[in-house]
Amino acid sequence: MKCGKPARLRRTALADLRDAHAYYLRTAPHVADDFLVQAMEAQRSIESHPGAGSARYGQLLDIPGLRCWPLNRFPHLIFYVERDDHLDVLRLLHQSRDIAAELGA
Fold first, then answer.
1. How far is CA 32 from CA 55, 83, 90, in A?
2. Which of 8, 15, 55, 80 is the most buried (most CB within 10 A)?
3. Nearest CA to 105 among 57, 65, 69?
4. Which residues pair with 92 in a beta bridge?
5. For the whole model, what pTM was predicted?
6. Quick check: 68 and 80 in contact, CB under 8 A?
7. Does the structural domain 7-102 have CATH classification 3.40.718.10?
8. What are the tens digits of pLDDT across the range 4-42?
9. Rounded CA gap, 103 and 105, in Å?
10. Are 22 and 92 in contact (CB under 8 A)?
């Protein structure tokens, strides 16, 4: 039985995922599939334990409820907000990006 809430990726998050995967296919094809596996594992983690993500960026950027979760072995963060019936996945961003600008803060 699944506990927690389902994650729903916004178009921006899906585009981020596709862009990052395409980047790895071009530059390091031997890890591209592992990137997708890690993204899926991170999604399962937040679905099971929504409150476990870091609230740091939410506090820094004054975005109520914003949390982030890192991918294992890849420098990317999943940004999401917990809703009543699902997790609203806003973005999947590389940690070197301007997070505030990317999240519109």
1. 28, 31, 22
2. 80
3. 57
4. 78
5. 0.93
6. yes
7. no
8. 899 999 999 999 999 999 999 999 999 999 999 999 999
9. 6
10. no
